[in-house]
Design brief:
This protein is α+β, with helices and mostly antiparallel strands and about 425 residues long. Helix content is about 55%, strand content about 10%. InterPro entries: HATPase_C_sf, Sensor_HK_TwoCompSys, Sig_transdc_His_kin_sub3_dim/P.
């Protein structure tokens, strides 16, 4: 039974168990490893430059040992701060490690003076990595300006002071940028598997939709005509033979439809589906009025409207006791509208079957994919309840020849071999 705007889900849930992930190949992890290696080498290189400056400065051996130990601790902290997801650690832990890094950045300045000032660049980068943007960027600027103090104490020139501040800020930016880049490379690489799974899922849903929409009408037609043949054999054997030929044709078409699924409906046409509808409804003794007034329009829109008409005929045969059906197709500006209506509808009927179908949902997905819309529902009138399916799709630039241009076709029961046209 066709129900107003009752669209079932486009696909059933996957009943399969959890699928094991394929083993990761070493080359699949190359990009994250390269990004991480570049980050670690850059941090080590900055640390080595600071170490060389300290070793070049005359000082007691114990001071040198303290400087090396502090440098190793700061480097370890920075590597931890630059790990992916470090900014999602508990706030207390982040503040603790930042506090230790800040202490090891500023306290050694009392001994090593400006030679230790380059370590502030690591602290600036860690602030950007671990704290919210507004707080992080504010403290980043404070760290850069703080290097003015040791320069003033040592009576350094303005150029040297500017150099220390600028190099600190630059080191912070490089540290932050390489750390974020390494994390993003890892995230993007990890997302490839999810994207591939989503693509496979989408293709499975498309295949299921296409198989449902293509075969539903054909199988319903075969069932209907087989029942008709069964009734005709005793009294009208010749007509039964004709219907058998038609059943064979529909069966061959259904087989071709299975192959057509891979092409995604691209070779379906509204003309073919109207012709099939005439044959099927005639066999079911359902009166059909067809009115098609179309200009040339796009092949993709034509295929989608063909799918809409096929699903409408499937629903008519399965869920109604129709005696009359109308098919109207027309241009409305840059839009093509297809309207299918039939009587014989019980507005209170609900199909209790769990396999009642998802054809209307499939149509909604298919029509919206090309920028159109579809609406379905029951309309009460003086002659009873009518089910109406309306689909509107954009007319694309790719041109096809529309069927029955400018003609109005009237089909009456028992007149399958003779179609009349009128203005």
């Amino acid at each position: 039974m066709q129900n107003k705007n009752r669209f079932d889900r486009a696909g059933d849930e996957d009943g399969e168990g959890a699928r094991p992930s394929p083993p990761k190949r070493s080359r699949d992890l190359l990009a994250p490893r390269v990004a991480r290696t570049i980050l670690v080498m850059a941090l080590i290189s900055y640390s080595v430059v600071i170490l060389l400056n300290i070793l070049d400065t005359p000082m007691p051996t114990r001071h040198t040992a303290v400087a090396i130990a502090s440098l190793v601790v700061v480097l370890a902290l920075q590597l931890r701060h630059s790990e992916p997801g470090a900014n999602r650690a508990p706030l207390r832990r982040r503040l603790l490690t930042l506090g230790v890094q800040a202490a090891l950045t500023y306290l050694p300045l009392l001994i090593f003076r400006a030679e230790w000032g380059a370590m502030a660049g690591f602290l600036a980068g860690s602030l950007l990595l671990l704290l919210p943007p507004r707080v992080g960027w504010s403290l980043y600027a404070v760290v850069g300006v703080s290097l003015v103090v040791p320069s003033l104490i040592e009576h350094r020139s303005v150029l040297v002071t500017v150099y220390l501040c600028q190099s600190t800020l630059l080191t912070g930016l490089v540290t932050y940028g390489l750390s974020r880049l390494s994390e993003l490379v890892g995230e993007v690489h990890a997302a490839r598997g999810e994207l591939a799974h989503m693509a496979v899922t989408e293709e499975r849903l498309r295949f299921a939709r296409d198989l449902h929409d293509l075969l539903g009408f054909g199988l319903s037609t075969i069932t209907l005509k087989a029942e008709l043949v069964h009734r005709l054999i005793p009294g009208h054997p010749q007509r039964a033979m004709d219907e058998i030929q038609d059943v064979l044709r529909v069966a061959r078409d259904s087989l071709a439809d299975v192959r057509r699924v891979a092409r995604g409906f691209q070779d379906m046409s509204l003309e073919q589906e109207i012709s099939s509808a005439r044959s099927v409804l005639s066999a079911a003794d359902i009166e059909l009025d067809v009115k098609v007034e179309l200009r040339p329009f796009g092949a993709r829109s034509d295929a989608v409207l063909a799918a809409v008409l096929r699903e409408a005929m499937t629903n008519l045969l399965r869920h109604s006791k129709a005696g009359h059906c109308t098919i109207d197709a027309e241009h409305l500006g840059e839009t093509v509208r297809l309207t299918v209506a039939n009587d014989g509808v019980d507005s209170g009927y609900r199909d209790p079957s769990p396999d009642s179908g998802s054809g209307l949902a499939n149509l909604g997905i298919r029509v919206r994919a090309i920028g159109g819309r579809v609406d379905a529902g029951c309309v009460k009138g003086t002659k009873g309840t009518t089910f109406r399916l309306v689909a509107e799709v954009p007319a694309h630039s790719e041109v096809v020849q529309p069927p029955f241009l400018g003609e109005k076709l009237i089909l009456r029961p028992g007149s399958a071999s003779r179609i009349t046209a009128s203005d």
